[in-house]
Design brief:
By secondary structure, the chain is of the alpha/beta class. The chain contains 13 helices and 19 strands. It has three domains: 102 residues, Tetrapyrrole methylase, N-terminal domain (Cobalt-precorrin-4 Transmethylase, domain 1, 3-Layer(aba) Sandwich); 97 residues, Methyltransferase, Cobalt-precorrin-4 Transmethylase, Domain 2 (2-Layer Sandwich), CATH 3.30.950.10; 182 residues, Rossmann fold (3-Layer(aba) Sandwich). A seven-stranded mixed beta sheet has the order 13-12-11-14-15-19-16, with helices on both faces. Strands 3-2-4-1-5 form a five-stranded parallel beta sheet, with helices on both faces. A five-stranded mixed beta sheet has the order 6-7-10-8-9, with helices on both faces. Strand 6, helix 6 and strand 7 form a beta-alpha-beta unit. Helix 12 packs parallel to helix 13.
């Protein structure tokens, strides 16, 4: 059996634990990226194999006669580390794997600026994608690993109305070239930062509350029709959106349903499809106002506008949740596009209700219909009177 010790090398030379350093000295073979092995080469008396690709690492270990092997990984073993893949690859009775953590960049930057990270959100945009806007919206402190894409991070946050938030940027932490700067999100583009930098974003007005059926007055409206609060609440409840879902809103109008879909699918993606230019601008305004960053707004009439899309078309066709609030007369064709997605459709006209239910029935899809009748109070002199809105039929697949 080969004994493998995975050692977190820390943020820089000297930030390794004493236990990790002891195991490093005793190993008969040391493997790690060249940057890491060079950091500790004065402590290594064994063969060094500079490599970070997991397939090459396994091949070297299997071919080696050495029984005691040290694998150096950057930072801490539990924070976006190669360790996860190592444990998966060497999950075999022929290997005995031990993990020794190191100092993470999060811990180091947190200590340097004097801010606790116990309640912070942690995410990575280094070769990954995440809804950074929603992390920031929900959390007072958010750490973001980057990889030469700081401008992309700042662009997303600025578009979501977060250009004024304070941010710390840490580069080459704990080394002789350490650099920590403080600015705001809008000022990030003007700063020179290292490719592999860590961001700490502070949002003093963070709010993780997600409402269903937000008050109508929250949204900018113009002359564009909007799905009202009470009806919207039922729509969202029937959509049963999960955090990782991909959602599509057809006939998005002002974007009121889009916004609530996006807040529910905060780890996923939302596509708002709308044919009117005025409505497109309102959707963007409302997304900015509510600090939403996981939504793509597409101008055009569905489904024809999908033909000109590239990557977005595949994502839209693979959607988990679809809401059709305005079909432009294409209700049958639209229903046929998503055979597996959970679907919610609203219809005011009885003809639209009939078409939708008939098409669902033809396709062998089970559905239910609920009719919402809403009356709201209005002030008339000293009295309050109830005023009824048009009843809305909500069709949803089951």
């Amino acid at each position: 059996m080969k004994r493998i010790t995975v050692i977190g090398a820390g943020t820089a030379s000297g930030m390794i634990s004493l236990s990790g350093l002891d195991k490093l000295k005793r190993a008969g073979l040391v493997i790690g990226a060249a940057r890491l092995t060079e950091m500790y080469e004065n402590y290594i008396g064994a063969e060094i194999y500079s490599e970070y690709r997991i397939d090459m690492i396994k091949r070297k270990i299997d071919e080696s006669e050495e029984r005691y092997i040290a694998l150096l990984v950057s930072g801490d073993t539990g924070f976006y580390s190669l360790t996860e893949k190592i444990l998966e690859v060497f999950d075999d009775e022929n290997y005995d794997v031990e993990v020794i953590p190191g100092i993470s960049s999060v811990s180091s930057l947190s200590a340097a600026v004097g801010i606790s990270w116990q309640d912070a959100a942690l995410c990575s945009m280094h070769g990954r994608d995440c809804n950074i806007v929603e992390y920031v919206r929900r959390n007072h402190s958010t750490f973001v690993l980057t990889g030469g894409n700081i401008s992309e991070v700042s662009d997303r946050l600025i578009k979501a109305g977060y250009g004024n938030l304070k941010v710390y940027v840490g580069s080459n932490l704990d080394s002789g070239e350490e650099k920590i700067i403080s600015t705001d999100i809008a000022g990030l583009a003007e700063k020179t930062t290292d490719k592999l930098s860590l961001l700490l974003i502070i949002n003093d007005e963070a709010n993780e509350f997600v409402a269903a059926g937000m008050e109508d007055e929250i949204f900018a409206r113009g002359d564009v029709p909007m799905t009202k609060s009470e009806v919207r609440a039922v729509i969202i409840s029937k959509l049963q959106i999960r955090p990782e879902d991909t959602c599509v809103d057809i006939g998005a109008g002002t974007g009121s349903v889009t916004a609530e879909m996006a807040l529910a699918a905060w780890k996923g993606k939302v596509y708002a499809i709308e044919r009117k230019a005025e409505a497109i601008e309102l959707i963007k305004e409302n997304l900015n106002k509510l600090h939403i960053g996981n939504t793509t707004v597409i101008e055009g009439e569905a489904p024809g506008c999908f033909d000109s899309l590239d990557e977005e078309r595949e994502n839209i066709m693979d959607a988990d949740r679809v809401f059709i609030g305005g079909s432009g007369g294409n209700i049958r064709e639209l229903i046929g596009l998503w055979e597996n997605a959970h679907m919610v459709i609203t219809a005011i006209a009885l003809e639209t209700l009939g078409e939708a239910t008939d098409e669902l029935k033809k396709r062998g899809r089970f559905y239910k219909v609920v009719q919402i009748n809403v009356a709201k109070s209005r002030k008339t002199g000293e009295l309050n009177l109830m005023t009824a809105n048009n009843p809305v039929n909500i069709i949803y697949t089951v």
